[in-house]
């Protein structure tokens, strides 16, 4: 019996495989809400608590979304702020302003159409932003 050349024998024995599909990358953010969700992911990654994403477009003229969250310590607040900055800067978003310090118990990150407030629990109670913006639509609330 004649022998097949090695290349022909291997081709006959091996089943045909379907070409691999490339993994789909998440869609690029285009709206303020898309960026707000990316920021939300960043604060969750740093274990922030009492997270609220509010749509304030109907009640505010200076921004579209507020993201409120708590950190338990200066170090955690710093980590949350850094994570948000890093995450959004990778998407081409530049922070327009920063107010407060982790040591004060409150930091505000201003991205124009998205404002992010990171509090200690005591400062969150003191400023009562949840009450101030109670007429805003709640997009996400995570305790």
Q: What is the 3D form?
A: globular
Q: Give the termini distance in whole angstroms.
A: 75 Å
Oligomer: single chain
Query: Runs with pLDDT <50, length 5+?
Result: none
What is the number of helices?
Answer: 5
Major beta sheet, strand line-up: 3-4-5-2-1-6
Which range best describes the helical content: under 10%, 10-25%, 25-40%, 40-55%, 55-70% or over 70%? 25-40%
β-strand percent reads: 15-25%
Overall average residue pLDDT: 88
Radius of gyration over all CA atoms, rounded: 24 Å
Order of helices and strands: HHEEHEEEHHE
**Biggest sheet record:** 6 strands, mixed
Secondary structural class: alpha+beta
Number of DSSP-assigned strands: 6
Helix/strand layout:
Elements: H1 6-13, H2 32-45, E1 49-55, E2 65-70, H3 74-89, E3 97-101, E4 106-110, E5 114-119, H4 121-127, H5 129-132, E6 137-142
Parallel strand pairs: 2-5
Antiparallel strand pairs: 1-2, 1-6, 3-4, 4-5
Helix pairs in contact: 2-3
